[in-house]
Amino acid sequence: MNAAGLLGGDFEQMEILLISRLPRLLAVLCTGTGMSVAGLIMQQLCMNKFVSPTTGATISSSQLGILLAMIFMPRSTLTSKMFFSFAAAIAGTWAFVLFIQKVKFKDAAMTPLVGIMFGNIIGGITEHLSYKYELRQALASWLTGDFSLIIRGRYEIVFLVVPLVIVAFLFANHFNIAGMGEDFSRNLGVSYNLVLFSGLSIAALITASVVVTVGSIPYLGLVVPNIVSMFKGDRMRGTLWDTALFGAAFVLTCDIIGRLVIFPYEIPVNLTAGIAGSVIFIGLLFCRLNPGKYKFGRGHQGAVSK
């Protein structure tokens, strides 16, 4: 593609733009926005900066749901797979949240470690079932985040992210209050369980729509909200749009790098995002566990008081 061909009305280049390039760009932006906001919601509600769809078993559960759809409904559409994925994602996320509520960890780093272990258990079940029913190859596209197969007609489900992000913004203050704990929420007249269920459902639905369309992208919902909160504070309504924009820019950058490293071949975005995200996560872990040495943002209490 080139500007001269597009402006000159070249039919073949216009077709490439509308069928492949534009859908891919929209999928990249929606994926980055959605997964970052989902991570922000989960961190706020779980009162832990290390919780995300990756470390909260949401992505692993979503992949298991897709596999169950392939086993019990072999001819299921993307929409049907998304419903299975959403049901499994919300079940897995709730199981993880209930566990960390029952077992209070003194070290904040223990929560994501438990989530990663729980996610690996679910991933192991998924692997076993995929081998048993000979669906390993069919499942591979949902285990690896990749935008190379995004074309018009098979990416539109990811547009569900847009209304869900708007709903998250409208109820951002409720998520902030619920993030202060059950007793605090009741004192302010907010139904803690209802807000918690609604927030986790939004995060699970965003994750399901992204995984069904693109696949899994690690660390996205973990590192982006943390970086933004370090400089913008913890008031969710004030950081949500910054988180969404930075998440979209992060995924777009990773996708461009993946397309240029071994051009004309392409590296899946989950590899570039995973490498960048793991390095950033180690840095964030060090900063969060040494708050006296590294101070950013305005803090949770200051954010709530506003």
Task: Note down, in words, how this protein is organized.
The chain is mainly alpha-helical. It has a single domain (28-305), classed as ABC transporter involved in vitamin B12 uptake, BtuC, CATH 1.10.3470.10. 72% of the residues lie in helices and 0% in strands. The protein is built from 14 helices and no strands. It has helices at residues 3-7, 11-46, 58-72, 78-102, 110-132, 136-143, 161-170, 172-178, 182-187, 192-213, 220-232, 236-260, 269-288, 300-305. It is globular and about 65 Å long. The termini are far apart. Mean pLDDT is 84; it is low at 297-306.
Task: Give descriptors for this structure.
single chain, mainly alpha, globular, disordered C terminus
Number of strands: 0
Major sheet characteristics: none
Q: Proportion of β residues? A: under 5%
**Helical percent range?**
over 70%
Tell me the CATH topology: ABC transporter involved in vitamin B12 uptake, BtuC
Number of helices, where a helix is a run of at least 4 consecutive DSSP H or I residues: 14
Which superfamily, in CATH terms, is the homologous superfamily? ABC transporter involved in vitamin B12 uptake, BtuC
Report how far the terminal alpha carbons are from each other. Answer: 49 Å
Oligomer: single chain
CATH architecture type = Orthogonal Bundle
Please give the CATH class: Mainly Alpha
Give the structural class: mainly alpha
Q: What value does the Rg take, in angstroms?
A: 20 Å
Rounded mean pLDDT is 84
The total number of structural domains is 1
Outline type: globular
List the helices and strands in order: HHHHHHHHHHHHHH
Stretches with pLDDT under 50, minimum 5 residues: 297-306
